[in-house]
Amino acid sequence: MKNSVKSNKLDYLLAAPTLIWLTIFFLVPYLIVLIYGFLTPDIFDVKFEFNLDAYRQLLDGTYFRPFLLSVRLAITTTLLCILIAYPVAYLIARASDKVKNTLLILIIIPFWTNLIIRIFSWRIFLSYNGVMNNILMRIGLISQPLEIMRTDLAVIMVMVYVYLPYMILPLYSVLEKLDFTLLQAAMDLGATEVKAFFKITLPLSLEGIFAGVLLVFIPSLGTYLIPQLVGDQRSLYVGQVITYKIKNIPRNWPMASALSFGLLVLVAFFLLLGYILLRKSKVRGVV
Amino acid sequence: MKRFSRAKFFKGMNLTVFTFAMLFLYIPILILVIYSFNDARIVTSWKGFTLKYYGQLFHNVAIRQAFLNTMLIAVLSTVISTLLGLLTALGLENKKLKGRKGFMGLLYAPLVMPDILMGVSLALLFNFLRVNTGMWTVLIAHITFCVSYTVIVIQSRLEGFDNSLIEAAMDLGAKPSTTFFKVKLPLIMPGVIAAALLSFTLSIDDFIITFFTSGRGFDTLPIYVEGTIRRGTITTINALSTLVIGFTLLLVVFTKRIRKSLISSF
């Protein structure tokens, strides 16, 4: 009995440094974001005077469009990632052990190459007189170069490119554990592949899809770098607007704070929605 | 017969998507490598083979400094966040700990937060505290986004841990400290290595959080690269990227240990 009390104390001590660290550098900063939203903007900094302008502008629709664009982009990216990642994860999960490891490494290697550098090479690939246009024109598929750089299409392509591995890996990890004899059994009982897939494989992989959506959809909401490097600069996403308000002079930190708070609320809303949906599917016994 | 052909169709479809996905993932990397040897000022046309950008790379003081900064931050943040992660994972092994659930929530929250929010909130914190941004603020930021990952990776290794080994060591008269360092630590080492690798990767790759927490005069490689792209001088970046990619490939292909840790970290 005494021993367990002692070990509890030790365990608290072990966990405490990280707990304190995250409180100071993760939780408290959000409190400051909340406070800064109610201050008065200054050219370089903020004035510590109460001001409701930022939140008024957040709610009156001035910044509705960047939010809408970001949500639309996050949804499109997530759906495309699921569509591409599912067959890939399925194929890897059903491969022999040796092939499996090689394929996994192939998926992981791009992770190890700098993100900016990879986005940058997409610019070389997609630009007006870039590699893709050159190839397509040489094989005669197009006669005029396609203008893809600096469009929404370019943003979506690069978003899917960057986030695809984050969807493949969690899907793979559930599909790998899936008992494929269940499928065989279903088909022996007369189910078609399509039916077996929708009745067995898909429901059993819902948890992986959920994890993938979490890893793709939520970060996509705040994306800055990709639209900044390949997107149309006339339609700004939330991440870009926030960054401009923080970095560009005249700065408007209260607005950036209010927008960040708006984004935080949006993230919380989608997380809650996802949680409820997952619980519901569990209750129904699908997962 | 019909069923057989349909199964084949599905397999074919999967294979097609897979090939497409692989092309998709590797085309940009391939282009960079090819164009780093291209003797032309404009990247879009091929003018012959050259190594001059690699030469320029080694004479570029700004790149060297940015590289050193990146490594410094990566090593320090990896060591600190792995250590923090190890301690926390060991503490949280105790499932009866009060407030454990809340703490786990706090640990998972940074994982699902868009990077930009962490960047903005830390930037405002440092402004509020009137701290000059630079190496220290970047280091703090990197530890903050790495530590959740290290805890979770090490935790997943601890979950499969066979506690009877500890009991056996104790029964044989080993002191708790000896048991920990001679039995437990070696057994969870693969998890610790995976955690360290992951946090190193996250650190050298981060742009956005560093962008918000580094002041003028402290550039990491991603920050430097982004600035260079913005100014339009990109030829040396191609060479730099090729070196990074080559280094990565060598590491992954030739070190079985790293490969295994990598796979187990996902």
SSE blueprint and pairings:
The complex is a heterodimer of chains A (287) and B (266).
Chain A (H helix, E strand, L loop, with lengths): L1 H35 L3 E2 L4 E2 L5 H7 L4 H31 L2 H12 L6 H12 L4 H8 L13 H26 L3 H8 L4 H12 L1 H16 L3 H6 L7 H10 L5 H31 L4
Antiparallel strand pairs in A: 1-2
Helix pairs in contact in A: 1-13, 2-13, 3-7, 3-10, 7-10, 8-9, 10-13, 12-13
Chain B lengths: L1 H34 L16 H8 L1 H32 L7 H13 L2 H14 L6 H25 L4 H8 L4 H30 L2 H6 L7 H11 L3 H20 L1 H9 L2
Number of helices of chain A: 13
Oligomeric nature of the chains: heterodimer
Instruction: List the helices and strands of chain A in order.
Output: HEEHHHHHHHHHHHH
Percentage of residues assigned to helices of chain A: over 70%
Annotation field: number of helices of chain B: 12
Any idea what the shape of chain B is?
globular
Give the mean pLDDT of chain A.
88
Q: What is the average per-residue confidence, as pLDDT of chain B, rounded to a whole number?
A: 85
